[in-house]
Hints:
68% of the residues lie in helices and 12% in strands. By secondary structure, the chain is of the alpha+beta class. The protein has one domain (25-106). It is globular, with a radius of gyration of 14 Å. Residues 1-12 have low confidence and may be disordered.
Amino acid sequence: xxVCLERPGVQVPGLSIPEEPLRLKARVRAELESDxxxxxxxxxxxxxxxxxxxxxxxxELRARGMxxxxxxxxARGYSQEIRLWVVGERPWEHCASGLAGRVRRRVG
Length: 108
C-alpha cells in the first residue's frame, strides 16, 4: 500500500506502508503486559515505531522539509492509536496510514 501525501504545491509520494512489524508489536505488547508502567512509557514515546518508519520514509520527508525530530513528535502525538494497534484493537494498515496522514498535514 502506498499513501500519496499531497497538499497544494507539495507532493510526498512513496510513503509506502511497510509490512506489519509483528515481532516489534509482540515485544511492546509483552512489555505492556509484564510491566505496564514501562510499557506505557514505551508506547507514549513511540520511538520503537517512529525509528523504523523514519528509516523507510525519512529520505523523502527530509527532501520535503520535515526534520526527524518533527516526525518523532508527530508519532508521539499519535501514541494512542499506536497503543490500539499494539493491543490488537486496530489493524496495522489503519495505524500506519493514519500516521502517514498526520505527516501529510504537516509536511511542507
